[in-house]
Predict the structure of DUF3923 family protein.
Amino acid sequence: MRKYWWLTVVVLWLVSIAYFLVYVNSPALRTAVDASTGLSMLHGVMDLLLIGGGIAIIAGLLHKIFHRN
């Protein structure tokens, strides 16, 4: 189960990074996000995945480093 959790977090984090790379480089997407409630909510979810995923990955790596037996 641990391996699937780790893989899921990393994949979702990479998806959010890809989304923000497209968002930053696409004026049309930025305009669409500003105009649409649904896309704004998707943007918020991706933001949470980016921040939360980064924290989870760092915490997971620290756990592996300090609890190695």
